[in-house]
Specification:
alpha+beta, 9-stranded mixed beta sheet, 5-stranded mixed beta sheet, elongated, binds adenosine-5'-diphosphate, binds magnesium ion, ATP hydrolysis activity, glycoprotein
């Protein structure tokens, strides 16, 4: 085209497209879900803008916030059209090619090893999945702030943009035209598309229409002669075969105009989805399968794994809202990588059914960012800016309730897990239906345990609740995970403190001289082997009125021994000499201790100093 401007794809995007084009991946269906998801996002955006400025919606058909799918069997074109926010020329250039999203290279890397194309949406590059089925794609878009433009590419490293002077005006929104490859002919079948929308786009909150054919019976007028013939025939046949026919029917037959019935194909928009939001339904009426599917669509996680838990509730009172929270089956790889820099809440915020934002950090504290879900509030105001909303006083209440519900939900994973019940000697919890729940808490802990620890550090209000969720191994846990409650239930009579030791790994800790005596006397000691545990124990001072005692630190009390005083007295000279010999900058004190058994002596950290393990961690961080 004469007015087309040419652009090259950003290098990573180009590589991604190559991978997609050459992929032997069999599940090509996913492109439709990605396009519908983009259309839905674009509709969310315009609906949000319309809250504060009705004008943006325009008038007539432009106000209809829907998605339309159309087929052209002859030209082999599948098109998806939305009346969303649309893209300006600038948007088209940036969003579809020249600026790589942060997830692009991560996804490319993944795909080169053993990646699953199914996860493309999670990496923010779902659009390019169109090249699974098309060899040429046109994106026609009209944004309120610009003229209508066409983006087009054959995925050959370049794309072109032209001002659109030949297509019909869209009014507003985007139409994506896929020129399907020969082997993708199945996507020209209406039934295939209907199935896909049902399967993948069930929870889209805008109506999705298909321009669908329908075989209809039409009455067409017939010639005079013909019709009289036919009339005779029908009359005679009804007399012969159905004598019992009612009088009225016969009357109707007689009055029938002179027409005949023929089959004809007509086209009309057929609605493919039910737009009733799942969170507005009564939780009792929503099936497990529906929650699972809803989770998949919300998290863009189509891995077929079930979420570990969910909680669907309505909060009433001063602040009213509905929420659905999920614990995903797996933690994303980068969950803790940018923990302190990135605020990546995974909750979607709706106000009275209108999507507001999925980057609302005020809803959950950082340590719960691994949860997915949504909140729909009736209390928050609709027609204010995001910034104003962020400061709204109701948010505090919402956050508080969400945390409470989230922690309850996590605790329930443990409560319903037969493995956990066994560890707690609650045998009555076991029954056949719990099979699915078996080992779920250990799974949760492996994926998200660190988040619970970060929670203990950050959230003083819920520290005790979070501490209940803590799991660890100990000298008595026999390679399994155990909890503080279980530890307490095993404490020896007279034992006041909860004992723990920190170090790089369990094997090394098992050999520690600090444990000799404790083990011999039958005391249980917790192993903390994660670097974050050192920080954790600076915040977790006590649990159920029991203090924590690091057994490698000063202050270990194992019950008084009558000989203690005597021993101290008789070694007085030795300890004095020793302290002098080591010089005061090396040690604070030299003491007779009852913490050892075979080892003659050991270096103990002072109560408020860093443990040897902490020194090691700090060293590795500064190096
Ligand atoms: P994501 O949806 O995760 O952002 P995609 O690769 O699916 O990633 O889409 C890239 C970007 O292109 C979107 O963020 C959006 O800005 C733009 N886009 C795609 N489809 C549409 C559409 N139908 N309407 C408006 N913008 C769109
Ligand atoms: Mg997308």
């Amino acid at each position: 085209r004469s007015n087309a401007e040419k652009f090259e794809f950003q290098a990573e995007v180009s590589r991604l497209m190559d991978i997609i084009i050459n992929s032997l991946y069999s599940n090509k269906d996913i492109f439709l879900r990605e396009l519908i998801s983009n259309a839905s996002d674009a509709l969310d955006k315009i609906r949000f803008l319309a809250l504060t400025d009705k004008e943006v919606l325009g008038e007539g058909d432009n106000t209809k916030l829907d998605i339309q799918i159309k087929l052209d069997k002859e030209k082999k074109i599948l098109s998806i059209r939305d009346r969303g926010i649309g893209m300006t020329k600038e948007d088209l250039i940036k969003n579809l090619g020249t600026i790589a999203k942060s997830g692009t290279s991560a996804f490319v890397e993944k795909m080169q090893t053993s990646g699953d194309l199914n996860l493309i949406g999670q990496f923010g590059v779902g659009f390019y999945s169109v090249y699974l089925v098309a060899d040429y794609v046109e994106v026609i878009s009209k944004h309120n702030d610009d003229k209508q433009h066409v983006w087009e590419s054959k995925a050959d490293g370049a794309f072109a943009i032209s001002e659109d002077t030949w297509n019909e005006p869209l009014g507003r929104g985007t139409e994506i035209r896929l020129h399907l490859r020969d082997e993708a002919g199945e996507y020209l079948e209406e039934n295939k598309l209907k199935d896909l929308v049902k399967k993948y786009s069930e929870f889209i909150n805008f109506p999705i229409y298909l321009w669908a054919s329908k075989e209809v019976d039409v009455e067409v007028p017939t010639d005079e002669d013909e019709s009289s013939d036919e009339e005779e025939k029908t009359e005679s046949s009804s007399e012969e075969e159905e004598e019992s026919e009612k009088d009225e029917d016969e009357d109707a037959e007689e009055k029938k105009p002179k027409t005949k019935t023929v089959k004809e194909t007509t086209y009309d928009w057929e609605l493919l989805n039910d737009v009733k939001a799942i969170w507005l339904r009564n939780p009792k009426e929503v099936t497990d399968e529906e929650y699972t599917k809803f989770y998949h669509s919300l998290a863009k996680d189509f891995s077929d794994e079930k979420p570990l838990a969910w909680s669907h509730f309505t909060a009433e009172g001063d602040v009213e809202f509905k929420a659905v929270l999920f614990v995903p089956p797996k933690a994303p790889q980068d969950l803790y990588e940018s923990y302190y820099n990135a605020n990546k809440s995974n909750l979607k915020l709706y106000v009275r059914r209108v999507f507001i934002s999925d980057e609302f950090d005020e809803l959950l504290p950082k340590y719960l960012n691994f949860l997915k879900g949504l909140v729909d509030s009736d209390t928050l105001p609709l027609n204010v800016s995001r910034e104003m909303l962020q400061q709204h006083s109701s948010l505090k209440t919402i956050k508080k309730k969400l945390i409470r519900k989230a922690l309850d939900m996590i605790r329930r994973i443990a409560d319903e897990d037969p493995d956990e019940a066994k560890a707690n000697d609650k045998k009555d919890v076991e029954d056949a239906s719990d099979d699915e729940k078996k080992g779920q808490y250990a799974k949760f802990w492996n994926e998200f345990g660190k988040s619970i620890k970060l929670g203990i550090i950050e959230d003083a209000t819920n520290r005790n609740r979070l501490a209940k969720l803590l799991r660890f191994e100990s000298t008595k846990s026999d390679g399994k995970l155990t909890s503080l409650d279980q530890y307490i239930s095993r404490m020896k009579s007279g034992q006041k403190d909860i004992f723990y030791i920190t170090g790089p790994n369990k094997e090394q800790l098992e050999k520690s001289p600090f444990l000799e005596r404790l083990k011999k006397k039958g005391y249980e000691v917790i192993f903390f082997t994660d670097p974050v545990d050192e920080y954790l124990m600076q915040y977790l001072m006590d649990y159920e009125d029991k203090k924590f005692q690091n057994v490698s630190k000063e202050g270990l009390k194992l019950g008084k021994d009558s000989k203690d005083k005597e021993l101290k007295e008789s070694f007085k000279e030795l300890t004095k000499w020793w302290k002098g010999a080591l010089a005061s900058e090396n040690v604070d004190d030299v003491k007779v201790s009852n913490r050892l058994d075979n080892t003659p002596c050991v270096v103990v950290t002072s109560k408020y100093g860093w443990s040897a393990n902490m020194e090691r961690i700090m060293q590795s961080q500064t190096l």
